[in-house]
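Regression check, manganese (II) ion case 319:
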Amino acid sequence: MMRNPQPLSALDMPRFAGLTTMMRLPAVDSAEGLNAGFIGVPFDLGTSNRNGTRYGPRAIRAESVLVRPYNMATGAAPFDSLVVSDLGDVRLNPYNLLNSIDMITDRIASVAGSGCRPLILGGDHTVLLPHLRALAATHGTLALIQVDAHADTLDELYGEKVTHGTPVRRAVEEGLIDPNRVVQIGLRGSGYHPDDFRWGERLGFLVVQAEELWHRSATPVMETVRKKVGEGPVYLTFDIDSLDLGVAPGTGTPEIGGLTSIQALEIIRGLRGLDLVGCDLVEVSPMYDLTGATALTAAHLLFEMLCVLPGVQYEEGER
Ligand code: MN
Ligand code: MN
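Current build output:
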């Protein structure tokens, strides 16, 4: 029997050696035949403060050499269940934001059109818009789960409509997401207006501010989240700045008082059973990530996303 592609084991080749793909998976160009594929979007033209997320995918891949193929907490065996590879990076035009957005849309749509669920390594959060355009074109209107310190529902920045502070508002306007099936988790910090976080709530979003999760497990609220998004296609967008800046300092718009890495695991594991059609992990900026902890955390969270995709089998001793 042919075995699915497997990560190159550190038992066969030391972690610090060999080519650096996501989790040391085979690199492929085509998504044909894949159930899921990691794909990088090295983009930072939409940032409003610190940049550098164009280097995010490379840093996440480099740190991902430490992620092993079985999930010891949940029993998930994703590589025994699914055909997964690394699809490389999306081609971009670093001199043109809007042109790049279209290039991202086309590439992700082609991946999704092959029946492959993309697991996307960002990139600043502007890239959420082309991801949603591509996946809504394939699957219809989506539910959205956004884990983020920021709502990203601004109308514009400096007159620009496509930035990393605006993708969720654009997605609502374009009908890519159903406002009654949108959840935002981890919002906090200071705002431009006192009702910044209420814009989505007025349309039907469920907003779970970071303060509601302080000093407690995120697991109970995930039942509410699952009910809110219900059946039908769901997209997960995970902005690494949802985590406390002590946990994940390597990002462009850090905020204090954020989620712990444990809560991040609880949130992603709480998505099991949903029809996740794609996921992204965005806003990792390696030049502010002196220990690599932010990129390492991102790599682990992407693995956890893979572990909750539909079709993943759970081994004996499942919890
Ligand atoms: Mn964001
Ligand atoms: Mn953010």
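Comparison notes: The longest helix spans residues 97-113. The radius of gyration is 18 Å. No diff flagged against the previous build.
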